[in-house]
Amino acid sequence: MTINRIDQLYRSILLSKYFVKGWGKPEDFKQLFEFRKRVCRRETCYKLVSKDFPVNIDKKEETNEYKLLEGHFISPFGQYLPDLVPDESKKAYFQVLIPKAWETDKSNYRPMVIHMAGTGDHYFWRRRNLIAKPLLKESNIGSIILENPFYGHRKPAKQVASILHNVSDIFVMGGCLMLEALVLFHWCEREGFGPLGVTGLSMGGHMASLAATNWPKPLVLVPCLSWSTASGVFTEGVLSGAIPWDLLEDQYRREHTFKDEIEKMMTLIDGDAYRAGEHFARTYPSSLISMGENISPPSTPTPTTPATPSPNVDLMTSQERHNLLASIHNKLGLLTEWTSGNTVHPSG
Fold first, then answer.
1. How far apart are CA 294 and CA 304, in angstroms?
2. Which residues are CB-contacts of 88 (< 8 A; sequence separation ≥ 6)?
3. Are 336 and 345 contacting, i.e. CB atoms less than 8 angstroms apart?
4. Which residues touch 10 (CB under 8 Å, ≥6 apart)?
């Protein structure tokens, strides 16, 4: 993996280590991966949080432009897995910015977006001043700023800054935010807010994506500077130098439960995602029918017979796919080297 100058600079000033206590307890991972079966399916996850889940508003302030509410609720994740969530993180804190213009607007149009925190974004002030207030001023969009578990008021007493002690903590953080977002979506509906959205920057964008997957109604999702996984950041990217790899390797070798039991649990819930996508493409459009889409079935082949790929569609072999990915990787490597100043820039 090619490292650009920004990564190099960030690593040079990164003094703290993440996951300083290692993986976490093997039994914690067992609980997490078992509970994951319920969280990773929208139908079961949605039912984990009731529509009337209690939400408390503790403080109200008003300015000429907006109302500011502060509130809290008990994290549902902490109720299901109480031993995994630190006591300080079991209560979720949030702020709400509501435009004063809504008071005179009779259209019942009350757009509201939840802002998830990026790495190191403690408390509320960054998102409130840099994102929520401009959204309110420019577009009359309300905002809910949710504080991350392990951050701000929810930071464990012995934790330093944003440095999570265990690898398991980041799974707990994601699980908490997924269910806490459901609490806030339900609260918004009870309060008459909508349409609803969720957004976040970097890690916050990833958490926003997780939260959006389990809401069964129309929802705006805007993940910024994020992807479907953060693994590359820790294994190859900017934070790889902050991970105590020797400690993690030593614990993995000494604790046989990780390899004998937990590793076997680390599978996709519905099988291999790539093969599922490939099967969907090969059997289209009959694959849509099996998903319950309201379309007319093709005359041939029938839905019970796998569709034959169109002669105009050239599905790649595994070797062709490998060659294509290698070519893309090389081009991206050259581009990254060029932008980082490691190669001579072309003239003009």
1. 17
2. 153, 154, 155, 156, 157
3. no
4. 238
Q: Do 22 and 251 touch, CB atoms closer than 8 A?
A: yes
CA distances from 174 to 97, 234, 304 (A): 24, 16, 39
Query: Is residue 208 classed as helix, strand or coil in its secondary structure?
Result: helix
In tens, the pLDDT along 51-75 reads: 999 999 999 999 888 899 999 999 9
Helix 167-191 crosses helix 203-213 at what angle (to 10 degrees)? 60
Q: What is the pLDDT of residues 201-211, one digit of tens each?
A: 888 888 899 89
d(CA 171, CA 167): 7
Phi/psi at 77 (nearest 5 deg)? -60, -40
Closest CA to 310 of 300, 302, 321: 300
Q: Do residues 149 and 172 touch, judged by C-beta distance below 8 A?
A: yes
Q: How far apart are CA 75 and CA 93, in angstroms?
A: 9
The answer to whether the predicted template modeling score (pTM) of the entire model surpasses 0.70 is yes
Return the amino acid letter for 47. K
